[in-house]
Amino acid sequence: MNPEIAVSASKLSKSYQGKNALESLSFEIEKGSLFGFIGPDGAGKTSLLRILNSLLIPDSGKASIMGFDTVNDYKKIRRIIGYMPGKFSLYQDLTVEENLKFFAGIFKTTIKENYHLIQDIYSHIEPFKNRKAGQLSGGMKQKLALSCALIHKPEVLILDEPTTGVDAVSRGEFWEMLQKLKAQNITILVSTPYMDEASRCDEVALMQAGKIMLRNEPEEILKAFDAELWSVKSNRMFELLKDISDFSKTKLAYRSGDHLCLIPEGKFTENNSLIAYLETKGHQSVRLEQIRPTIEDSFIYQMQAQN
Amino acid sequence: MRTVIFILQKEFRQIFRDKTMLPIIFIVPIVQLLILSYTATFEIKNTRLVVVDQDHSQGSRELVFHFESSSFFKIVARQQNYEQAAEWLKNGDADQLIVIGTDFGKAIETNQPTKVLLVTDAINGSAASLMSAYAQQVIQGFNKNILAKRVPFKTNKGNLTAEPLFWFNPKLDYITYMVPGILVLLVTIIGFFLSGMNIVKEKELGTIEQINVTPIKKWQFITGKLLPFWLIALFELVFGLGIAKVVFNIPFLGSFPLLLGVAAVYLLVVLAMGLLVSTITDTMQQSMFISWFFLVIFILMSGLFTPIESMPDWAQWFNKINPIAYFITINRMIMLKGSGFSDFAGLFYALAGYAALMLVLAVNRYKKVV
């Protein structure tokens, strides 16, 4: 048992009515790391996190947190983890302060004792401490939920899609809070469907259909993008994807926001030939521009390379 | 222990913050006792009677007068022939009709046996037999009167009469009989539904997820969940007894602490059943339907409205698992008969065993891991 490992899983599998949610997952996460599980809905993120926090029993395989088995030592695990479910799960009819006091109470601690941990987060909502939790905005609810998950000074914090349904500004703030918590030596596991949040993590695992497709540090994932990336626009965006995919020098094309992304085979020097090609297909005012890949592009690129 | 107190504190806060809860706690008992006690009665007053007197003799008028002076009958019409009178019954304007034939008076005069026709609307069978019995009583009263007048010395000769004495409820007051049962119903409904809705509510709102990952122990959680409803239901019982005493002046012959003690054990059965429903369902709607299904069966078979003794054997056997039947029986014994513990010790031990069984079942069903 490596003492530097906070979370480990080996060959975890779980299926619901014959459908595999997790397929033989194995990984280890170092202590003090901010680790992101990134993937679309249905990738198995929630199932994985629920196995790790001891709410779900895997069909096969083992997982442990701080050396405690998630099935046999679940009582010990529940003392050392903080969990924030994807759905807001605090009492909406209790006030902010009552919720926090309640969760402090059942962990046999007090708000005062661990106030330093939640101070940065809780200070945002403290002015509203007598307001009922149900009347808070999405961003404030999330801060309260995080405060409640932290109030007992957990060693491992497990957050299931904490930024889903939260506005962009609050999302940014939330990630900054997580960075600060990391400095308190708390290992943090986060799941998210947003690929752009990957760069906020120390390390990310890309999940799809119950498997980890790719795992690396965000910079490494970016570096692994060893191709050119072009943005293409025309007056007939709807047909553009099909027409570009048919182009002989296209390696991969996909929609991204208001433009198409094109990854060509090799270096894309004679780009004029693409414009000429598109014009023969009836496209006008074609705009072509080389852009810097984001981590999202890199994911897509590497997934393509794997397939 | 401190953990339990935190849970209790949270539960009470939530209960009293819920705007519909306080009215339920205070208004339900008042409404149930005041309305049900008066309306859930088998006594039939003001039977609407149509009289067909084809005789118009002194004897027939005397018989009709007997009906007029009875509080159970109200003569709504007098008709000349049977067909016209039958219309009243068909139209639902009358419940009963009496036809007195043309030779009635003459037969009375000459001390001959005679007959009258009594027709009753029998859609509601038990009401019909009651109305018919009342009418026969009136006719018998008339009969005795005649005999006394015409043949004064023969009256009691060779007649066997039974003198009924009604113990524990001498006036056969229906309210006295119903109120102890309705009190049981009250605490049962409050206890069953509230506990049945509670944990499933946490499931439906998702709050149970957050609770389940904490180190709260099963017994702490369940104690924290059930104790508030146990206290509320006991409060309801005392409150309801107060209403019964003040409004109906119901006799309370037995010991009040004894009744509370039995109620305390009985409520464990009810709360554990509610908890069991709560653990096997996923939504409050499912819980409502299942709770309602069991409660209706338990209530209708409990002997609240109809005596258990008149039910078929299998139903009497079923009532061995019907907690409401136990408590209604005990409650009536304590309140109306003044029974002591030894009078119903067997019933009480059965109830206590039942409580233990249900609690074990419910606690085992509740799992913190899926």
Task: Summarize the amount of helix of chain B as a percent range.
Answer: 55-70%
Instruction: Please tell me the overall pLDDT of chain A.
Output: 88
Strand content of chain A: 25-35%
Sequence of secondary-structure elements of chain A: EEEHEEHEHHHEHEEEHEHEEHEH
The Cα radius of gyration of chain A reads 23 Å
Spatial strand sequence of the major β-sheet of chain B: 2-1-3-4
Account of the protein in words:
- The complex is a heterodimer of chains A (307) and B (370).
- Chain A is an alpha/beta fold.
- Chain A folds into two domains: 5-216, P-loop containing nucleotide triphosphate hydrolases (Rossmann fold), CATH 3.40.50; 230-291, Alpha-Beta Plaits (2-Layer Sandwich), CATH 3.30.70.
- In chain A, 33% of the residues lie in helices and 28% in strands.
- Chain A has ten helices and 14 strands.
- A six-stranded mixed beta sheet of chain A has the order 6-7-8-3-9-10, with helices on both faces. In chain A, strands 2-1-4-5 form a four-stranded antiparallel beta sheet, covered by helices on one side.
- In chain A, a hairpin with a 2-residue loop joins strand 12 (250-256) and strand 13.
- Chain A is elongated and about 70 Å long.
- Chain B has helices at residues 2-17, 21-39, 58-68, 82-90, 104-109, 125-150, 174-205, 207-212, 218-248, 256-280, 284-300, 313-318, 323-337, 345-365, and strands spanning 47-53, 73-79, 96-100, 116-120.
- Chain B is elongated, with a radius of gyration of 28 Å.
- The mean pLDDT of chain B is 86.
- Helix content of chain B is 65%, strand content 6%.
- Chain B is built from 14 helices and four strands.
- With 370 residues, chain B is α/β, with parallel strands linked by helices.
- Chain B folds into two domains: 2-40 and 170-365, no CATH class; 47-150, abc type-2 transporter like domain (abc type-2 transporter like fold).
- Chain A binds chain B through residues 50, 53-57, 74-75, 78-79, 81, 83, 85, 87-94, 98, 102-103, 105-108, 148, and chain B through 2-3, 6-7, 9-10, 13-14, 17-18, 205-210, 212-216, 368-370.
